[in-house]
Design goal:
By secondary structure, this protein is mainly beta. The protein has helices spanning 17-20, 55-60, 67-73, 146-153, and strands at residues 2-3, 8-10, 34-35, 45-48, 77-81, 93-94, 99-103, 110-112, 117-118, 124-128, 135-137, 163-167, 176-178, 188-192, 199-203, 221-225, 232-234, 246-250, 272-276, 294-305, 308-319. The protein is built from 4 helices and 21 strands.
C-alpha cells in the first residue's frame, strides 16, 4: 500500500520499478498503483458478498418489495464483492446511488445492465477484477423502451460522476456510453490492466444522439496503464479537457488521440504529462493541432530484464498553450551500454 498527499493507492507488483524510479514524472506513485476504494458508507448502504443467496432472482424480480427495489429506490452506497450473480443492479431507475464499488464478481456482464437508469446521482464508480464484464453501463440497444431512449438522449445520466476507477477487467470493451455532449463533473480517470478496452466512453447506437464533441470541463487527472487495445479515451471527434493537470499513459500502444486542450485559460498551471513513444502514431485533431500544443523532452534508459534488455522511452511533456507552434520532436537516441542512460 502506498500513501500520497491526497489518497492512498494499492501497489501491484510490476516489471518497471527501476525504470520508473529513474525517469521523469511522479515516481512516488508507480503506474501500476490503484486508488483505494471509497470507504465512507452512507446511512443507506448495502453490501453483497460471498455467501449471499438468491441475489439474481431478487434483483431481477418485478416487485419493488425486495432487494431490487431497495437497490433502486433507497441505496446511496453499494459494495458488491465475490458474488456469482450475473446481475447486481436492477433494470430500473436507480434514484439515489452516490457511489458504487464492485469487485471479484466473475459472472457479471455489466454493472448497470440494459434497462438500468442512473438518475444523475452517481459520483464514484470503483470496479476491479470483473472477468466477464464487457462494460460498466450497457448501451441498452436501439430496441429499448421509448422512455429509456429519450431519457438517455436528454443527457440526465452520469452528469454528477466525479471519479471512474477501473482495474483488471480483461473483457471490458468500453466503460460508459455517452448520449450527450458533456461529462461536466468528471475529475479523475484511472484505468489499469484492461486488455480489451478500446474506448473508455463510447457513443450510443442511435446516430441522431451522437455528438462530434464531448466536453470534460473538470477533468484534471488521467492515469492509463496496460491498455494495449485502447484507441481513444472518448469515441468522438474531439474531447476538450481544458482543466487537465496530470496525464500519465503507459502501455497503451494503440492510442491515437490525446484530449484537446481547447478552452484552457491563460495563466493556468502547465499540466504534467508523461506518455510513452506513441507520439508519431497520434492523429491530428480536426480543430486543434494537438501535437503542436506540446513541447517534448525525452529521457531514455535501459532496464535489465531476464535474457534481454528493455529500451523504454518516457516523454516529459509540458503544455505550451500555443496551437501554432511547431512540435519539438525527439531525435533517435544512440544506444548506450546496459545500465547507463542515453543523453536526453
Amino acid at each position: 500500500m502506498i500513501g500520497s498527499s491526497d489518497e492512498q493507492h494499492h501497489d501491484v507488483p510490476g516489471l518497471y520499478d527501476d525504470v520508473l524510479s529513474k525517469v521523469g514524472g511522479d515516481s512516488s506513485i508507480p503506474m501500476r498503483a490503484f486508488p483505494l476504494p471509497p470507504t465512507l458508507q452512507s446511512d443507506h448502504h448495502i453490501e453483497i458478498g460471498d455467501g449471499s443467496h438468491n441475489v439474481q432472482s431478487e434483483v431481477e424480480a418485478s416487485s419493488d418489495i425486495n432487494l431490487g427495489g431497495l437497490l433502486a429506490l433507497h441505496t446511496e452506497s453499494l459494495h458488491v464483492h465475490d458474488a456469482l450473480a450475473r446481475t447486481i443492479i436492477p433494470a430500473k431507475v436507480v434514484v439515489v446511488l452516490r457511489w458504487c464499488r464492485v469487485e471479484r464478481c466473475p459472472n457479471l456482464k455489466a454493472v448497470f445492465p440494459s434497462g438500468a437508469v442512473e438518475y444523475n446521482t452517481l459520483e464514484t464508480v470503483w470496479a476491479s477484477d470483473l472477468l466477464k464484464a464487457r462494460c460498466i453501463c450497457s448501451k441498452g440497444g436501439r430496441d429499448g423502451p421509448y422512455w429509456l431512449r429519450q431519457w438517455r438522449a436528454s443527457g440526465h445520466s452520469f452528469q454528477r460522476l466525479q471519479h471512474l476507477h477501473l482495474r483488471s477487467c480483461p473483457s471490458l470493451q468500453y466503460a460508459l456510453p455517452v448520449w450527450f455532449s458533456s461529462l461536466p463533473n468528471l475529475e479523475t480517470l484511472h484505468i489499469i490492466h484492461c486488455g480489451a478496452l478500446r474506448h473508455v466512453f463510447e457513443q450510443g447506437e442511435e446516430k441522431e444522439h451522437r455528438s462530434s464533441v464531448v466536453e470534460f470541463p473538470k477533468l484534471a487527472t488521467i492515469h492509463l496503464y496496460d491498455l494495449p487495445a485502447l484507441q481513444q479515451i472518448c469515441e468522438a471527434a474531439e474531447m476538450p479537457a481544458p482543466a487537465l493537470e496530470t496525464i500519465r499513459i503507459r502501455g497503451c500502444w494503440s492510442l491515437r488521440r490525446l484530449p484537446a486542450l481547447k478552452g484552457r485559460q491563460p495563466g493556468m498551471r502547465r499540466p504534467a504529462v508523461e506518455v510513452e513513444e506513441v507520439w508519431d502514431a497520434l492523429e491530428i485533431d480536426p480543430t486543434e493541432v494537438i501535437k503542436a500544443a506540446y513541447s517534448l523532452s525525452v529521457h531514455v534508459c535501459f532496464s535489465l530484464i531476464p535474457d534481454r534488455f528493455l529500451l523504454m522511452a518516457c516523454y516529459a511533456i509540458r503544455c505550451m498553450g500555443q496551437a501554432g507552434a511547431d512540435p519539438i520532436r525527439p531525435s533517435s537516441p544512440k544506444q548506450s551500454p546496459p545500465g547507463f542512460f542515453a543523453p536526453g
